[in-house]
Design goal:
mainly beta; disordered N terminus; about 5% helix; about 200 residues; eight-stranded antiparallel barrel; 1 helix; elongated; Porin
């Protein structure tokens, strides 16, 4: 009964947007970063805990991809195409502030559980005009970990309690690499449009 009552006061939303994901690896005092771009789509809801203060969990699908290339004197070239898919479960709190009739600013913050569904790298080696493709499953061994806990926050704008836009940033707390000598952390920037119903 409590769950049914809570659901009746919740406002559901659908979101669709752009994601920029950056993985940073630290080796000694040097840092190496690689970026992937893609999109996110998902559902969430806002359960009002107090006036204009909400618990806002959700489930989001994330697809990101990117390429890198190296050339060694024109004799050998290597190209890597990385594709990853995630399911993110944000458990955030948010606060709304009405700036005019029908328009509200809001801020949100909290943790996000992130589970990697797939991660693959297609490596293309070209030696003197002869090309060879190899596809690698990055989760095949334990060198690259699927699970992460991210923390972050952001802000947005709601219009007429029907449409909105939000910008958020999350930073992964867990080392995605099995190596403690080269810790790897993922961060992501998201810009999304929302439809509230």
């Amino acid at each position: 009964m409590l769950l049914a009552c809570a659901t009746s006061f919740a406002q559901f939303n659908f979101n669709l947007g752009y994601v920029n994901s950056v993985e940073t690896t630290k080796v000694n005092s040097d840092k190496y970063a690689s970026g992937l771009n893609g999109f996110t789509a998902g559902f969430g809801y806002a359960l009002e805990l107090a006036d204009d203060f909400y618990f806002t969990p959700g489930v989001n699908y994330v697809f990101i991809t990117g390429s890198s290339a190296d050339n060694f004197g024109g004799v050998l070239s290597l190209k890597g195409d990385v594709t990853e898919q995630y399911v993110n479960i944000p458990l955030t709190l948010s606060y709304d502030y009405e700036i005019s009739r029908g328009a509200k600013l809001f801020v949100f913050a909290g943790p996000t559980a992130s589970l990697g569904l797939t991660s693959s790298t297609k490596v293309t080696a070209n030696i003197l005009g002869y090309a060879k493709d190899t596809k690698v499953d990055n989760y095949k061994d334990d060198d690259y970990k699927r699970f992460d806990v991210m923390v972050g926050g952001g802000a947005g704008l709601k219009l007429n309690d029907s449409y909105g836009i939000k910008v958020g940033y999350d930073y992964g707390l867990l080392n995605r690499s099995a190596s403690t000598n080269a810790p790897t952390h993922r961060s992501q920037l998201t810009v999304a449009l929302t439809y509230l119903f």
